[in-house]
Protein backbone atom coordinates (compact mmCIF):
# COMPACT_ATOMS: atom_id res chain seq x y z
CA UNK A 1 0.00 0.00 0.00
CA UNK A 2 1.43 3.37 -1.04
CA UNK A 3 1.38 6.09 1.62
CA UNK A 4 -0.11 9.46 0.76
CA UNK A 5 2.60 11.78 2.06
CA UNK A 6 1.06 14.92 0.66
CA UNK A 7 -2.29 15.02 2.44
CA UNK A 8 -1.55 12.75 5.38
CA UNK A 9 1.21 14.97 6.70
CA UNK A 10 -0.36 18.41 6.35
CA UNK A 11 -1.90 19.84 9.47
CA UNK A 12 -3.54 23.20 9.90
CA UNK A 13 -1.42 25.80 11.68
CA UNK A 14 -2.63 27.67 14.68
CA UNK A 15 -4.65 30.54 13.30
CA UNK A 16 -3.79 33.94 14.71
CA UNK A 17 -5.88 37.07 14.56
CA UNK A 18 -3.97 39.98 12.99
CA UNK A 19 -3.74 41.76 16.35
CA UNK A 20 -2.03 38.69 17.83
CA UNK A 21 0.88 38.86 15.38
CA UNK A 22 3.11 41.10 17.48
CA UNK A 23 6.69 40.72 18.57
CA UNK A 24 6.63 39.24 22.07
CA UNK A 25 8.43 40.70 25.04
CA UNK A 26 11.56 38.58 25.48
CA UNK A 27 13.89 38.40 28.44
CA UNK A 28 17.68 38.08 28.35
CA UNK A 29 17.48 34.28 28.63
CA UNK A 30 15.16 34.19 25.60
CA UNK A 31 17.56 36.30 23.53
CA UNK A 32 20.49 34.10 24.49
CA UNK A 33 18.61 30.97 23.41
CA UNK A 34 17.35 32.59 20.20
CA UNK A 35 20.86 33.68 19.19
CA UNK A 36 22.33 30.32 20.18
CA UNK A 37 19.66 28.56 18.11
CA UNK A 38 20.41 30.78 15.11
CA UNK A 39 24.14 30.14 15.42
CA UNK A 40 23.51 26.39 15.51
CA UNK A 41 21.01 26.51 12.62
CA UNK A 42 23.40 28.53 10.48
CA UNK A 43 26.10 25.92 11.21
CA UNK A 44 23.78 23.14 9.95
CA UNK A 45 23.30 21.81 13.48
CA UNK A 46 19.56 21.58 13.05
CA UNK A 47 18.69 19.25 15.92
CA UNK A 48 20.64 21.42 18.34
CA UNK A 49 19.03 24.63 17.04
CA UNK A 50 15.64 22.98 17.46
CA UNK A 51 16.51 22.29 21.11
CA UNK A 52 17.66 25.88 21.76
CA UNK A 53 14.54 27.41 20.22
CA UNK A 54 12.37 24.96 22.10
CA UNK A 55 13.57 26.54 25.35
CA UNK A 56 12.12 29.90 24.25
CA UNK A 57 8.95 28.19 22.99
CA UNK A 58 8.41 26.61 26.41
CA UNK A 59 8.68 29.95 28.20
CA UNK A 60 6.32 31.85 25.87
CA UNK A 61 2.55 31.93 25.79
CA UNK A 62 0.30 31.56 22.79
CA UNK A 63 0.25 33.41 20.40
CA UNK A 64 4.03 33.97 20.55
CA UNK A 65 4.60 30.24 20.64
CA UNK A 66 3.35 29.88 17.07
CA UNK A 67 6.35 31.77 15.68
CA UNK A 68 8.87 29.80 17.71
CA UNK A 69 7.17 26.53 16.86
CA UNK A 70 7.53 27.41 13.17
CA UNK A 71 11.29 27.88 13.62
CA UNK A 72 11.50 24.57 15.46
CA UNK A 73 9.65 22.87 12.61
CA UNK A 74 11.92 24.55 10.06
CA UNK A 75 14.96 23.12 11.84
CA UNK A 76 13.22 19.73 12.00
CA UNK A 77 12.62 19.83 8.22
CA UNK A 78 16.32 20.34 7.53
CA UNK A 79 17.26 17.71 10.11
CA UNK A 80 14.96 15.21 8.37
CA UNK A 81 16.39 16.25 5.00
CA UNK A 82 19.85 15.34 6.27
CA UNK A 83 18.49 11.95 7.30
CA UNK A 84 16.72 11.45 3.96
CA UNK A 85 13.27 11.14 5.56
CA UNK A 86 10.85 12.36 2.92
CA UNK A 87 7.69 12.47 5.02
CA UNK A 88 9.54 14.37 7.78
CA UNK A 89 10.81 16.94 5.29
CA UNK A 90 7.40 17.52 3.73
CA UNK A 91 5.50 17.49 7.03
CA UNK A 92 7.81 19.97 8.76
CA UNK A 93 8.08 22.28 5.73
CA UNK A 94 4.27 22.25 5.49
CA UNK A 95 3.77 23.03 9.16
CA UNK A 96 6.50 25.68 9.37
CA UNK A 97 5.28 27.35 6.18
CA UNK A 98 1.65 27.43 7.30
CA UNK A 99 2.59 29.04 10.61
CA UNK A 100 5.02 31.58 9.13
CA UNK A 101 2.48 32.61 6.47
CA UNK A 102 0.75 34.55 9.27
CA UNK A 103 3.82 36.67 10.04
CA UNK A 104 5.20 39.74 8.28
CA UNK A 105 8.35 39.46 6.18
CA UNK A 106 10.43 40.92 9.02
CA UNK A 107 9.72 39.56 12.49
CA UNK A 108 12.18 39.93 15.37
CA UNK A 109 14.73 40.84 12.71
CA UNK A 110 14.39 37.50 10.91
CA UNK A 111 13.91 37.73 7.14
CA UNK A 112 10.68 35.71 7.19
CA UNK A 113 10.03 36.55 3.54
CA UNK A 114 13.20 34.69 2.54
CA UNK A 115 12.48 31.83 4.93
CA UNK A 116 9.00 31.38 3.44
CA UNK A 117 10.48 31.41 -0.07
CA UNK A 118 13.03 28.73 0.85
CA UNK A 119 10.34 26.61 2.47
CA UNK A 120 8.22 26.78 -0.69
CA UNK A 121 11.22 25.93 -2.88
CA UNK A 122 12.31 23.06 -0.64
CA UNK A 123 8.82 21.65 -0.37
CA UNK A 124 8.38 21.76 -4.15
CA UNK A 125 11.71 20.06 -4.81
CA UNK A 126 10.92 17.37 -2.25
CA UNK A 127 7.55 16.72 -3.86
CA UNK A 128 9.13 16.52 -7.31
CA UNK A 129 11.73 14.06 -6.04
CA UNK A 130 9.21 11.89 -4.22
CA UNK A 131 9.82 9.54 -1.30
CA UNK A 132 12.68 7.69 -2.97
CA UNK A 133 14.53 10.56 -4.63
CA UNK A 134 15.76 13.04 -2.00
CA UNK A 135 19.42 12.19 -2.41
CA UNK A 136 19.72 13.42 -5.98
CA UNK A 137 17.99 16.77 -5.48
CA UNK A 138 19.76 20.10 -5.83
CA UNK A 139 18.34 21.96 -2.83
CA UNK A 140 17.91 25.70 -2.60
CA UNK A 141 20.26 27.38 -0.13
CA UNK A 142 19.21 27.11 3.50
CA UNK A 143 18.14 30.55 4.75
CA UNK A 144 20.39 32.25 7.26
CA UNK A 145 18.60 33.01 10.50
CA UNK A 146 19.56 36.04 12.55
CA UNK A 147 17.66 38.00 15.13
CA UNK A 148 17.66 41.73 15.71
CA UNK A 149 19.86 42.63 18.64
CA UNK A 150 17.84 43.55 21.74
The rounded Rg comes to: 15 Å
How are the strands ordered across the major sheet? 1-2
Fourth CATH level, the homologous superfamily:
TTHA0068-like
- Helix coverage percent of residues? 55-70%
Proportion of strand residues: under 5%
Q: Structural class of the helix and strand makeup? A: mainly alpha
Question: Can you tell me the residue ranges where pLDDT is under 50 for at least 5 consecutive residues?
Answer: 7-11
Instruction: Give the ordered list of helices and strands.
Output: HHHHHEEH
Average pLDDT score: 89
- Domains counted in the coordinates: how many? 1
Question: Which key terms come to mind for this protein?
Answer:
single chain; 150 residues; mainly alpha; Hyaluronidase domain-like; two-stranded antiparallel ribbon; 2 strands; globular
What does this structure look like?
The chain contains six helices and two strands. A hairpin with a 2-residue loop joins strand 1 and strand 2 (110-111). A two-stranded antiparallel sheet has the order 1-2. The chain is an all-alpha fold and 150 residues long. It has a single domain, classed as Hyaluronidase domain-like, CATH 1.10.3450.
Summarize the structure.
The protein has helices spanning 5-8, 28-42, 46-59, 64-83, 86-100, 112-129, and strands at residues 106-107, 110-111.
